[in-house]
Design goal:
alpha+beta
Length: 119
């Protein structure tokens, strides 16, 4: 029984741990949240950013219980780059698809070990 237990422990510890995540703070009725969901939501998990920082949605009323914030979240959507449960940096609002990707790429590169896709 012990070798089998050791195998399972080794297998579980070999799984990736998502230390960095993108937390989207939203609320019902948020027009810009819906716009982000329509334009970015379906493709986000398929991108290098999405694989590096998986998305987690949190309601604005619950965010203080889920993330160690640098300051209170006031606007939705607010995108928090979170590492080990603590906010590193945020992007407030959704500026549109043409601005979202370069901004996210820049903040991931500046605050984490994200290197992005190589050509």
């Amino acid at each position: 029984m012990r070798p089998l237990f050791a195998f399972f422990v080794a297998a579980l510890t070999a799984l990736p741990v998502w230390a960095v995540e993108l937390v989207m703070v939203d609320q019902p009725g948020c027009v810009y949240c819906a716009r982000w969901e329509a334009e970015i939501g379906p493709i986000y998990p398929k991108t290098s950013e999405g694989r590096f920082a998986p998305l987690r949605r949190v309601n604005i009323r619950d965010v203080q219980d889920d993330v160690d914030l640098k300051r209170r979240v006031v606007f939705t959507p607010t995108f928090l780059v979170v590492e080990d449960g603590a906010e590193l940096i945020r992007l407030e609002g959704y500026p549109g698809m043409d601005f979202f990707w370069p901004l996210l790429d820049e903040i991931l590169r500046e605050t984490t070990d994200y290197i992005g896709e190589t050509p």
